[in-house]
Amino acid sequence: MAETAARKPHFQQITVMTLMTAFQLICAACVLCRQEELSLTMVYIFFGYIAAEWIYMLIGALVTGNDYFELEAIAFFLSGIGLTVCASFSESYAIKQLIAIGLGLAVYLIMLLLIKDVHFASILRYPAAVGSVGVLALNLVLAQNINGTLNWIDLGFFSIQPSELVKVAFILVGAVTLEKLLSSVSLTKYIIFSLGCVGALFLMKDFGTALIFFFTFILIAFMRSGDIRTIALICTVALMGAALIIYFKPYVANRFAAYRHVWDFIDTTGYQQTRVLIYSASGGLFGLGIGEGYLRDVYAASTDLVFGLICEEMGLIIGLAVLLSFAAIAFFAIRSAKTSASTFYAIAAVSAAGMLLFQLSLNIFGITDLLPLTGVTLPFVSRGGSSMLCSWGLLAYIRAAGAPFEPPKPDIAVKKVQKAAPPKVKTKGGAAS
Known about the structure:
By secondary structure, the chain is an all-alpha fold. The chain is built from 16 helices and three strands. The protein has a three-stranded antiparallel beta sheet, with helices on one face. Strand 1 (144-146) and strand 2 form a beta hairpin. The longest helix has 32 residues, at 2-33.
């Protein structure tokens, strides 16, 4: 019985991997069949990615005894969809995305090692905070204005978006600071750090990322204090500040002028949202086929608008699977937080999942005109190395918070001691000894 129970999780892993591999092989076949001449490089990309998934799973299951593979499976599934989208555009996109996934997985494993010990993680918060402020300040100096924002640094052979990397450090600093709130000084320092990050993002005109940071700060603060009135006060002050910015900076208001009126600006500021609404619905349940969509001709189809492209080419069923994958990540984070060994892990896991979900909401609701279009990426799926590194780095907090979701086994040693305890013996006076 014990041997069967030990093998059961391994069988589940193999079943999940087999189904995911079948899906990815179908996606690869769709991409390769569209090519006029078969590209061996593209074949190596897809089969290399699938082989890497299996190697990771087998090493985790057989060498380290890790039976907890759900989170990694979800991340591989989402990253595989992103790789398919990139491959359907060009071979160079696919190569860059594959490298980004590999680096993201490396960041994930390194993060697990760094935060394995809470004490060591608490030491890292100071260099993480200083490095984050320094990187954002450097971004303001070196970044080029692309589409009205200053959030990209061109290093020649590749570009990076420092604000994506700062997201990982932001949660580390917040979770460590609020895990043991020994004084108001530490809280004040974290508030100043948060305001500095959000302020720098406003100066970069990266309002979508600024909203993500602010939401994460609210979530971390609420988890530590549980005071709704304080959170409401902070949100009110933030709304007043945003209103003043819009009033004194008209160009900010112009960026949101098409919100809820995209059909009035169908060929100008509402061009992207209207095309997403039309083309994603035309895909139906099963899609038009990978590479056959019309949305791919719209600007930012593989980055900001990638969810609409998935719905058009792969179908609404795959789009729903993407949404359910993020819901599963949030579920794992909440379950892990309940049984985590430290408050640090609980705060970090929930805030990381909250950041991913909030970014997902800004992306999908923005391109469908339910929220203003902010230009944030879809985690794990959108083309881009910085976003991929951030997504895998955030996943490490959730993974570190807990183990497999099984009820704790009773301590066998304690049971033996209880069984071996001598029975109570009554004395002549009637008292038990």
